[in-house]
Every structure is written in C-alpha cells, then in structure tokens.
Amino acid sequence: MVLLRLGRRLVMLLAVVFTAASLNFLLPKLAPKNPVETKLLQLTESGGALTDIREIVRAYEEKFGLDRPLLAQYASYIKSTAMLDLGWSIAHYPARVIDLILRALPWTIGLLLSSTLIAFTLGTLMGALLGWERAPRVLLFLAPGVMVLAALPFYLLGLVLVYLFAFTWQIFPMQGGYGLTTVPGWSWSFAFEVFRHSLLPALSIVLASIGHWALAMRGMMVTVQGEDYMVFAEALGLSNRRRFLQFGLRNAILPQVTLLALSLGHVLSGSILVEIVFGYPGVGQQLFRAIQTLDYFVIYGIVLVLICAIAVAMLVVDLIYPLLDPRIRRPGSEQ
C-alpha cells in the first residue's frame, strides 16, 4: 500500500514537471513573433557585442532546430530539459541558464527557507495558544499585534527596517549578500558577514509571515476544541498540557502543514520584492533582472524550477501526512 501510494505520487510529480516543461516550450510559440528572436534582433540593431549576438542566434537555432517541424523541436527541447540543459542566457552569453540559477539558488534557499520555517513555528505556536481557551490571558494582548503583522507585505516592512536599522541607526548593512570589497570564500569571517547581511531581510519575512500563520492556526484551534475527541479527553481527566499538544495542536496543525508545503514551494519566488529591496543575490533578484533585460531563457528556466519546487514540496508533505494523522495510514483510507 505504501509503495503503491509512493509510486502514484511520483507519477503525478513527473506529470506536473512534464506539463510545466511543455508549457515553457509552447507559450513562446503562441506569440505572433518569437520573443527570443525579436530580442536578439533588437540587440543586433543596437550594436555592441555583435559577434556574441550572432553566436547566440546560431546556438539558439542549433539547439531548437528552428528549420525543423514543430514536433521535432519539441522532442529536442524535452530531451535537453531532461538533461538540465535550459539553454544560454541572452544578457550574459555565454553563461548557461542552469549555472545562473544554481549560483543564486543557495542564497534564496538559505534565506527564505529558514525564515519561512521560523515564522511557521512561532506563528503556529502563537496561534494555537491564542485559540486555546485555557491559555494564559496575557497572550490576548498579542492578538492586535499579530493582526497588524498579518496585514503588512514583506517589501513594505523591509523598507521600514532598512530605514530604521540600516539608514538611521546603521546597525546592519543596507543591501547585498556581502560587502562590495569582500571576496567570497569558505571562512568564518565571510559566513558571519553573510549572516549580518541576511538578518534584515529574514526579519522582514518572519515578522510579516508570523501573523498569517498565527491567525490561521487560531481559527483551527478554536474549531477543534468543539470536537468529540476533545470533550472525551477532558472527561478522561487528561492534563491541560497533554490535551493541548496531543489532541488540540496535532489535529489543528494538519491544514497548516498543507499551507507550509505551498509556502516552501513558493520559497524561490514568494519574496522576490524582499530580495529586490535588500539587493539580495537570490533567485528573485535574478528573475527581476531577467525580466528587465528580457532574458527569456532565464525567465523560462526560473519558472520551470519554481513549478518543480512546488510539486516536490507537495510530494514531500503528502508523504509525511500519515505521520501526523494516523487515520491516513488505515487500509482503505485512500480514495
């Protein structure tokens, strides 16, 4: 049963990735003109590195076989994508798209993944306590602050933090992943500098996200307290702590885990504006620059990576769901 379920989810994952890759190929074909060819012609007419532009045109035509039938071009594209060959960057030729993405990916994962997990943990616990009827009354004073934080977007809070802590008080760096004169390397000094530069963007994400998690968890906790198993647990004389953790929190957290999967899937794109505000060298910043320069191959590559990230995150959460809710493991529970 477990292997069958895993196989079914893997097939679904491959179907999502295949569909995303197909759309990446077909959407440019639906345009009246090929956007990549149009951009290359614009660069050629504007002068500059004419030799490089001609090299890009030749590489592009060779890669996709523009003189061949559409089906043959599609087969060539799918084969290249399966081998992680996403083409060349127009704006940074001869750099390859996969190299640009892999260069920016660790920055985004390190910043946004840790920030999202911290915000999820703190927000979920805070929301559970706010919705627990036997929680300390002093926690009620946190509710207005949580609602205010839930209404603030990442980039607006980031601008406020930059103004206060970087511009006015000059406690933290204003932007970038490290100093302009710093040479990246594997050393404790460089790691500490990266950590200092990531504090403000991470703080903006945590503060702006914690309210959403808290409000969602508070609603679920209020709902589960009226369930029969909660009444039965209280009738058994179980301690308040055990009823909160084992019966209340464990059942109320299931929808939160699904939301976490979607949030982790959007980790690469969900905070693009934060990376732009802080000049952080992540995937969001790379996507913003690609849109500015109409670097279509980079845009298509990042979009494909984002879709794959969401699909993988949903697969992982779907596999760990039975660990959180034993009812899913029962025979016949799958539809």
Describe what you observe in this structure.
This protein has a domain of 178 residues: MetI-like (MetI-like fold, Orthogonal Bundle), CATH 1.10.3720.10. It is 73% helix and 0% strand. α1 packs across α4 and α5 packs across α8. It is globular and about 80 Å long. The two termini are 12 Å apart.
Which stretches of 5+ consecutive residues score pLDDT under 50?
Answer: none
Note the run of SSEs as H and E. HHHHHHHHHHHHH
- Kindly name the structural category: mainly alpha
| CATH homology superfamily name of one domain | MetI-like
Features:
single chain, 335 residues, mainly alpha, MetI-like fold, 13 helices, 73% helix, 0% strand, globular
Break the fold down into its secondary structure elements and pairings.
Elements: H1 2-30, H2 35-45, H3 50-64, H4 70-82, H5 97-131, H6 142-151, H7 154-168, H8 188-224, H9 228-235, H10 240-265, H11 272-278, H12 283-292, H13 296-324
